[in-house]
Each structure stands twice: as C-alpha cells, then as structure tokens.
Amino acid sequence: MERFPIKRRSTRQIKVGDVTIGGDAPIRVQSMTDTDTEDVEATINQIVRLQEAGCELVRLAVPTMAAARAISKIKESIAIPLIADIHFNYRLALAALDNRADGLRINPGNIGSRKGVSAIIKAAKERGVSIRIGANVGSLPAEILNKYTHPTAPALVESILHYLDFFEEQQFDQIKLSLKASDVPTTVAAYRMIASQVDYPLHLGVTEAGPLLTGSIKSALALGILLTEGIGDTLRVSLSGDPVEEVRVAYAILKGLRIRFRGPDIISCPGCGRTKMDVAALAMEVEAGLAHITAPLKIALMGCVVNGPGEAREADLGIAGGKGRGVLFKRGELIKRGKIKELVKTLIQEAERLARATTDA
C-alpha cells in the first residue's frame, strides 16, 4: 500500500521502555486502562487485550500507594511498556518508579511544590525513565486561567512552556509533551503553536473526546489535521468505553491517512437502489472473520454493478455480488463464483494465506 507523502516534523528521540518515540520512529499507538490498578488480574487481562489489538504503550492510573506497588506485579505478565499516570502526590511517582514503571505522565501544575517535581525528575534521571508533561484544559493552574479567563490554546502552550523551563533547568530532556483540549479547534491550535517552538516529541489526543461514534469523529478530525501537517509522534484516542476500541480507531486513523497499516482495510459500498445484497451484514461478517489478522490487506465488499467489479479487482481480495450470489477476486484474478456465504468462507481462508505469506516474507 502506498504511504501518505507527509514530511514529519523533526524531533529529538526518547524511549519508553524499549519503545522509541520521536525522530524517525513510527507514530506510536497508546491507550489507558480503565480498571482499578490495584486489581492486578483485571488490569493484566485488559492490557493483554490491548496488546492483541496493537497497543504499543499502555498507561494506568496510580492514585494510591497500593496501585503503585501493583505495577511490578502487572509488568510480569505484559509485553509492552507501562506508563504511570500521576497526579497530586509526587511520592506516588517515586513509588511507581521503584516498582519499575517504564514511563511517567505528570501534570506539574497539580503535583504541588517544585521540590516534589524536582524529586520526580531526579529519580527518573537515575533510572533512565522518560516523562510526559501533560497540560489539559480541565486542570490548568489558577494563574493561567486568571490570565486567559478560560482554557485556550495559548493558555495550554504557556502552561507547558512554564513547566518545560523548569525541567530544562534540572537538565532533564527525556520528555514528550501533550496539550489536550476536548474540542478540535483548540487542540489543533495548541499543537501547532507548541510544534513551532520546541523539538520535543508530541503525544496527540483530544481529551474526553466522547463515546465511540462522536469521539472517533472528533479524534479523526483533530489528529488527521495534525498528522497530515507532520505533527505528532504518539497518540491516544480517548473514548468512553472499552479501551480496545481506542486502539482500533487509532489504527483506522493512521490507516486512513496511509501512514501506518495494521490489519485489513475493508472497503464496502454504502448501498443504493441498485444494491441487491445486504452489504452492511456482509461487512460485519467479514470484519469479524478477519479480526485476528494483522497483515495490511485491502478487502473490497461491493454490491454494485457499476463500481463493484472494478473495486473488487483492485483489492487484495474482493467480493462483488447481488441477490445472494457473486464473484470473488484475488489480486485482480477471478477465483470463484457462487453463493455469498461460500465466497465469504473462501475470502477468509485466502486472507489467512496472504497474511501468512506476508509474515513469512
């Protein structure tokens, strides 16, 4: 598949565990658990599901010392770096580091004194752990809010730069930044502004984006704009619901922009008066049948005599049909005619063969 011709913003590179971020590294996909971190079994189970969906970094809330201590147990059973999300109490960050957290996310504005932030920086430096400095419209410092009267893009940027100055004074540069708003224009404006002023890697996201449909749309708009401008080194799609959906939507955004490919790209027609088959049901069946495949295959499902055969021929695998019957193409070659149900079974089998061939290559 052809990749999108964007020029990535040049940034310094950092690491979270063994995952590189920034520079020439791929744009990384993150998510965050919604389990009680103290419930080690439930948290591990969710992280394993996130890994299977393609999540490359996972963040979890650390609101208590017991949650911090749980990190070392959780790490024994997961395969991706773990980031501790810390607020209010710097000692939680120190405890998370003691329990082998691979990274920290802090908002220095709510940690408390500079002494506490200094202690976090010192401990992170000693362990070679990177830190995400995160500003959020919901938790800006009072003096910033008083100056700007409400959360704006310049307010987010000023807040981040203020914190950044302190980190640099402490000679700590293993940093990535985030400036999250819950609306698209503020998010885009804030990231554009900070990208023009610093060369640290940026973590993208629309905070509290909403439920699956509206949250995905908001995230696709904001992240799509920024990514096409070369801005962004890692991202999270924040949705109300199963965090696995965050990972799927993130990859759908990257796939739609032809930046990164993971799993099948399913093209299906919307249906019209010419359609003689239930394309929506077909698409759902094929999507479920290919959910285990990670190879970047293009799949076309068409119920139209106008565009259907052409789209199906151009895909790795494609079905064009109507009235319960159709044809199956494999990379331009017609390989089978028959009932739609039979074609779906063959399509899944052929997709698995292509995926194995891709892995073996």
Mean pLDDT comes to: 92
- Percent of residues in β-strands: 15-25%
Strand order of the largest sheet: 8-7-6-5-4-3-10-9
DSSP summary, beta strand count: 15
Poorly predicted regions are: none
Structure write-up:
By secondary structure, this protein is an alpha/beta fold. It has helices spanning 40-53, 65-75, 90-98, 108-111, 114-127, 142-148, 153-169, 184-195, 212-228, 243-256, 279-289, 308-314, 340-360; strands spanning 14-16, 19-21, 28-32, 57-61, 82-86, 103-106, 130-136, 175-180, 203-204, 234-235, 265-268, 298-302, 317-322, 325-330, 333-339. An eight-stranded parallel beta sheet has the order 8-7-6-5-4-3-10-9. Strands 11-12-13-14-15 form a five-stranded mixed beta sheet, with helices on both faces. Strands 1-2 form a two-stranded antiparallel ribbon. A hairpin with a 2-residue loop joins strand 1 (14-16) and strand 2. It is elongated and about 70 Å long. The model has no long low-confidence stretch (mean pLDDT 92).
